[in-house]
Fold this protein.
Amino acid sequence: MKDKVLTVKFQNRGEFKEKVTKAFKEQKRNITPKDLVVFSSVTEYQKFMTEQKLAILAVVANKRPQSIYKLAQLVDRDFANVQRDCVGLAAHGFMKMEGADDAKGSKIPQLVFDYMRIIIQMPTISYSHDLHEVA
């Protein structure tokens, strides 16, 4: 079975503005497919993607925890820090948080789709994070 891939690409603000303008003229709702995450620079990605965030993605992919609290236990980190990382990962399109059917208002961390590999595409080289190996 072939692993599904999430791709990280880099696009400067000018290219992004052109893409948004074109999508607006064509009345498109989504300009980025769900299997693509775009950063404005490699430096921005490097500042954002930490080993702790990769571990969160790996645990969510492999263990499918039913709450952020359970996820924090699985990665052996403080709940507030894990929650903050989850919010950031969701904001950048790596994962989503679904509401649980409980009185606490818990959130269930989930990948945006069932990917197991993250490919980072750069002009001359490509890196890959295999979520099977991180956990």
Observations:
- The chain has a mean pLDDT of 84.
